[in-house]
Known about the structure:
Residues 39-159 form the Nudix hydrolase domain. By secondary structure, this protein is mainly beta.
Amino acid sequence: MSHYQYCPRCAQPLADREEGGFTRRACHTPGCGFVFWDNPTPVVAAVVEHEGHILLARNAAWPGEFYALITGFLEKNEIPEEAVQREVQEELGLEPLGASFIGHYGFSRMNQLIIAYHVPARGTVQLNEELVAWKHVPFDQARYWEAGTGHALRDWLRGKGFEPQPMEIPRLR
């Protein structure tokens, strides 16, 4: 993870200091007071239910054949429930039929807070430029990955009475 090396306010070098119970990058120049809080980025994720299956997709930036949930950044002033439906529509070309909260999950590798929803959707899949492939997975055959959105898929499946098995995550980067 990259950190600020210089203060964006006064251009002086930053140094570590204890702030709010954590070690943070901060400016020690008198009168400046800049602290790099390094707060997580909010991301919405959708367990898309389409034609009686879970729909998983593969991002164009990912090597290999890893398929995952539909995700996207929460935009300024956006409500997460609306954002996740927007992402389903933008990335898959499907009509979302609502969104039910599953849970929130930390994804420390990317410093993200995943806000996950179940999104039933209808229509014909039309992938946008971010995605290169998609597939349907029957509920009883779905496996989850032990990170971020994988935990949301696991929890949703358990809520439906299934006991999914974990899978190995291919290294994406």
